[in-house]
Structure formats: structure tokens, C-alpha cells
Design brief:
55% of the residues lie in helices and 18% in strands. It is α+β, with helices and mostly antiparallel strands and 421 residues long. Strand 2 and strand 3 (99-112) form a beta hairpin. The protein is rod-shaped, with a radius of gyration of 47 Å. It starts with a helix and ends with a strand.
Length: 421
């Protein structure tokens, strides 16, 4: 729901509550005024009847409402002495309506020539059902008119006022940290929007500067580490070729070279992880996973043959996803390499590729499941995999997070990794 519609819904709810309360108060106040007016009229009519009775005694003989709006009957003093004026609502048959209609009736007592008379006077009153119905329809029209007015104001006036805010939103949606382009700020006379523009501008500049500094630091650090590692490896190779060397010395040089090569791979993997998380792989194309899978299997053919691993591929659909082609190759390579390294000699790797997922299963060496909560964490590795950097599956997870894929691990007579596109 958009902000303007969200605000309109609150206005609509608030108006409904306010109009309902106002209608109830208005209805009862209006009803009270109507009753006061009718009671005053009946009181005045009573005085006129009493005055007329003093001039014309036939008034005292009207004992029904058929001939007028009042009737009179004589009552004994015992009934009259404690009587007070009484107003009540009642029903009376109306010839013009041919139905019983509500009337307001005043019952009172007066004395005339030492005799007591009870007089009853009536007046027509408003029908509450009709009054409520008319009031309800009027309020509905009022409510509809107010909501329509708010919608018009929102779409014409407020939308124009909030235009700088939506411009900032569009700017933030298009903003890419790895490809920050200057976007002109829309000028506004509203202080809050001007402050928002300045705050967003400063925040973006700080993030871009931090990102560039971090990117430069990682690249420089990686380069500075890579160079001495390569020089050390070259010198160790030259030293190993120097004669004469004892067997113990050759073993020591081999161990040092192995550690330096592992350190080189670790450095490259950390740099790759950093580039993925910093979104430095910007190019995206439609990548056919089946082609990537075929090429990766060909690259690992020697290692697979050396370990005498049987590979079974079941491609059920030509799956293609939009992503960076280098990262697609890296994703498949790390999953397959992990499967090859952790498969027992003469074991089996089963690959299933559909349009929805890529699943790679391999027979386990020690038939022990991995910790599913930590398997994608950095530097997590099986105790038997001493040469591993522990970053291969972390790179897989980082690539999946980059493109919104879901990667999961399961164990059932072997390890199974599934990437859902």
C-alpha cells in the first residue's frame, strides 16, 4: 500500500468514527429539542382549552379526540388532588395515514367552578424511524463526499507535495554501491525534504568512500601478500634443486612449500569472497547451467579418474539463470570439487539438474553427517580434509545469497548439496 493511500485509510477510519459519534450526539440533541418544542406547544394548548372552557361550557363536554386535539372528562377531587402534568408517547389511529402513528400526549388536571377535570391533549410527533433513516442517508452522502475530497486532494495536492520524497526513493532504488553514479537532487522548499536530501547525500557519499577504501585495501593487501608468497615458493623450488640436500631437508622444504601454497589458495579465496560480498561481479547474462556443469566435469576429469569416482549425471531440463558467468562457474566448480574431494575412492557422485534446482550427492568417506548449521560457515571443514581452506562452501553460500538462490545440505547415506534457483 502506498503512503498516500495508507494515510487516506487512516483518515477514512477516523472520519467514520468522528461522524458516527457526531451523528449520535446530533440525533439525541435534536430529539430533545423536538420534545421540548412539542411539550411547550401542548402546555400552551392546555391553557387555551382552560381559557376557552371559562367562556364556553361545551368545551367540557368533549370527551373524545374525534372532534379535535383534546378531550375532557370530570374526575373526583380524590383523583385530582395528587395528579401532575404527565407527558407520554403513544399511538393513535390517523385517518389520513390509515394507520397508527406516534403522537405526544399531555395529561393534566384543572379546576373549573369547584369541579375537577382531566384534560388530554395530543400533537403529532416525528417518526423516529424516518428520522433515523433520513439522517443515516445524509451522513452516508456526507462521508462519501469527504472521502472523495480526500482522495482528490491526495492525488492532486499531496502527491505534488510529496514528489521530492518519491524522487529520493527512486534514487535509492537505482543506487548501486559498486557503480555509484551522481544523481541530481530535486530542489524543494520544504525543510524536511531538504534535510532528507542532504542526509541521504551525505550517507551515500560516506558509504561510497568507505566501499572504495575497503576495496582498495583488500586488493592492495592481497597483492602485497601474493607477491612475497610467489617469491618464497620460487626460492624454495630453487633451493630444492640445489645439490646436495639430505632427505630430511627435502621433506622440510616440501612441508614449507605445501603450507605456502595453502596460504596462497586461502588468500585468493578470501579475496574472491570479499569481491562477491562487495558485488564487484556486475556483469549478468543468461547462463546455461548444463553447459557450465559439462565444462566443469571436463576440467575435473583427471582428478575424478585418479580417485576412480563414478559420476552419474541426470539433466532433466535445460536450466538457465541470469548471473555473472564467472560466478556461475565458481558455484558449480566448488560444489563438484567438494564432492570429488570428500568421496571415497571408487565411490559415486550423482548430479541432478532441473529447471528448479541443482543437486550434487556423493558417497561419504566415513558415513558421518556434517554439522548442517555450520557447513556453510567460513573455515568449517571436515577433520579429514587437512589441506582444505574451508572456504569453498562459504563461497557457494555467498554466490547463492548474491542472486537470491537457496543452498541446503542433507545427509542420507551420503552428502547432498542442493541449490534451488
Amino acid at each position: 500500500m502506498k503512503l498516500l493511500n495508507h494515510a487516506t485509510s487512516y483518515f477514512a477510519g477516523l472520519l467514520f468514527v468522528v461522524i458516527t459519534i457526531w451523528a449520535a450526539l446530533f440525533y439525541f440533541n435534536m430529539l430533545e429539542e423536538i420534545y421540548d418544542s412539542m411539550d411547550d406547544g401542548l402546555e400552551n394548548q392546555k391553557l387555551l382549552v382552560m381559557q376557552q372552557a371559562g367562556k364556553d361550557s361545551t368545551v367540557l363536554q368533549q370527551d373524545s379526540f374525534e372532534a379535535g386535539y383534546y378531550k375532557v372528562k370530570e374526575i373526583p377531587f380524590t383523583q385530582a388532588k395528587h395528579r401532575k402534568d404527565q407527558y407520554q408517547d403513544t399511538l393513535m389511529y390517523m385517518l389520513n395515514e390509515e394507520d397508527f402513528e406516534p403522537v405526544r400526549m399531555l395529561t393534566s388536571v384543572f379546576r373549573h367552578q369547584e369541579k375537577y377535570y382531566e384534560v388530554r391533549l395530543i400533537t403529532s410527533m416525528v417518526e423516529e424511524d424516518d428520522l433515523i433513516s433520513d439522517l443515516l442517508y445524509s451522513l452516508l452522502w456526507l462521508y462519501a463526499g469527504l472521502i472523495a475530497s480526500i482522495l482528490v486532494v491526495n492525488n492532486l495536492l499531496l502527491k505534488r507535495i510529496w514528489k521530492p520524497f518519491y524522487h529520493i526513493l527512486q534514487r535509492l532504488q537505482r543506487f548501486k554501491l559498486e557503480d555509484a553514479q551522481p544523481v541530481p537532487v530535486q530542489k524543494t522548499s520544504v525543510d524536511e525534504f531538504r534535510l532528507l536530501n542532504e542526509t541521504v547525500e551525505n550517507l551515500l557519499q560516506q558509504n561510497v568512500t568507505t566501499f572504495q577504501n575497503q576495496k582498495a585495501f583488500i586488493e592492495n593487501a592481497s597483492h602485497e601478500l601474493q607477491t612475497p608468497l610467489a617469491i618464497s615458493l620460487n626460492k624454495l623450488e630453487l633451493l630444492a634443486e640445489t645439490q646436495p640436500l639430505q632427505e630430511e631437508q627435502l621433506l622440510q622444504i616440501g612441508a614449507i612449500m605445501e603450507n605456502l601454497e595453502r596460504l596462497t589458495r586461502l588468500n585468493k579465496s578470501l579475496l574472491l569472497l570479499s569481491k562477491i560480498e562487495n558485488r564487484q561481479f556486475g556483469q549478468e547474462v543468461e547462463v546455461t547451467i548444463a553447459d557450465v556443469l559439462r565444462q566443469t566435469l571436463a576440467d575435473l576429469e583427471d582428478q575424478i579418474s585418479f580417485n576412480e569416482v563414478a559420476v552419474q549425471v541426470d539433466t532433466q531440463a535445460a536450466s538457465s539463470v541470469r548471473m555473472n558467468p564467472d560466478l556461475a562457474s565458481m558455484l558449480v566448480l566448488n560444489l563438484l570439487k567438494n564432492a570429488v574431494v570428500h568421496t571415497a575412492r571408487s565411490g559415486e557422485i550423482k548430479i541432478i539438474l532441473t529447471s528448479a534446482f541443482l543437486q550434487i550427492s556423493n558417497s561419504a568417506i566415513n558415513q558421518q553427517p556434517l554439522d548442517a548449521s555450520k557447513v556453510f560457515e567460513r573455515f568449517f571443514k571436515d577433520d579429514a580434509a587437512t589441506a582444505s581452506t574451508g572456504l569453498g562452501l562459504a563461497i557457494v553460500k555467498a554466490i547463492c545469497d548474491r542472486y537470491g538462490f537457496k543452498v541446503s545440505y542433507a545427509f542420507e547415506n551420503g552428502h547432498t548439496f542442493t541449490v534451488s534457483f
